Amino acid sequence: MTEKYHVPVMLSEAVEYLVTVLDGEYVDCTLGDGGHTQAILEKLNDEGKVVAYDRDPAAISTAEVRLEKWRGRIQFVNAPFSKMKETVQSCTVSGVLFDLGVSTKQLIDYRRGFSFMGTGPLDMRMGIGSVVTAGDIVNSYQYDELVKIFRDYGEERYSNKYAHKIVEVRKNKRIETTSELVSILAGGYQGKHPATRVFQALRIAVNNELEELNAGLITAVDSLKQGGRIVVISYHSLEDRIVKNMFKSYKNDGVLSVLTKKPLIPSEDEVRINRSSRSAKMRVAEKR
Question: Would you list the domain boundaries of the chain?
Fold first, then answer.
């Protein structure tokens, strides 16, 4: 049976760390289907509010239906979270949550092009703010540019090999679908699917995810009241490294106190129930 909504990762841990003021204003930077936002609202009293961001208009539509009973206490913003400064004033927020990456619903909708498990267009755009598609990158970027994307965003050790394969194939035809790209990358393989890191790298490049994260974290810290908290759930080492280093820098500057010396990870029970949570790491900091 398919879940109606995306299952939020580390839900109880995130809300427990995040919500410290029951009548406060909170920001969910990655609304998705609204699972974290719903849990935040359920913990708040009637004065508490949430500003919820998502660049995917489909996610906003789904969450609006799910969260109808709290409509007067939610502001939905269809924009990347790097635009937070345009909506949230400095030092007014009691907590900010980031649950990074792509949702299960985005992955299983093969028309979005995020997954290498089915056939769809090479798109990978999450929504507003993304112009270039994965197909544009695969078919028009130079060999050296592809190598850099696969290496820097996918940490793929065979970046040269895969970039070369792509460049050779596209001499004769445009690479249109996820399945075509997978067939170019795969051949015979053992262990982790060779498309895993390449698809991750393309998605990050298409959506400027690392730049978005940097900008979002800076604005989030600026928006927090004294004692307000920032909770970040990440799913690969590139994201986690950015969060770790930024928290450390703000700590050294006397701006944040880091509440998680090491990142928290999902329980064995959660991983057993929700396999997509297995790579999650959660870091938490508090505004001084």
Answer: 11-105+209-287, 131-207
